[in-house]
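Bug report (template v2)

What were you trying to do?
Predict the complex of my protein with zinc ion.

What happened?
Run completed; filing so the output is reviewed.

Input:
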Amino acid sequence: MAKLYFSYAAMNAGKSTLLLQASHNYRERGMNTLLFTAALDDRAGVTTIASRIGLKAKAELFSENDNLFSKIKTALEEGEINCIFVDEAQFLTKQQVWQLARVADRLGVPIMCYGLRTDFQGKLFPGSSELLAIADVLREIRTICHCGSKATMVVRLGEDGAVLIEGDQVAIGGNERYVSLCRKHWEEKTGSWPTDELDSPTLELEPKEDNKNE
Ligand SMILES: [Zn+2]
């Protein structure tokens, strides 16, 4: 049975490199792959997925109104495809994740999705949320924080290098940068720690008065 895979990570973990390498392994054995990546606007057509270490390959763009089941079904009628790869899978809609699941279940082609787990506010992306819920196989791609701990969170930095707390989940065409951090340092960078609750008078750290008298 073909499976739906989700490989997730924070930023700069080398997701595209792993995707391109895996696709290359199929092609080296004479098999065909089909690659998709997010358009982030209404563009359609073909683009290039490139990795920082120099690998690249052609990929079809997907945007939120595309029916990926139909697209892939049409592509399969034109020729054999042994595996489908989806980069930037966090930008899939929930419906598109189900469309990809149906390709695996009903058309028999494995689907390998690669994407971010959470956005810069620590919230799941819609595509990642649905993939975490229904993928057959979940794989974590590890990357590390500056402290050496596993980085699971992302901060968005503005042009001046300051951490941005507010803003759209997807920034298009901005000059923002993203940095991967461990949860502890993410809380500190985003100002969630130290928390006000520590010295709040409403937080009862001491036993209540009436309990002491018992
Ligand atoms: Zn850290």
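What did the reviewer find?
Residues 4-202 form a domain with the Rossmann fold fold (CATH 3.40.50.300). The longest strand covers residues 56-62.
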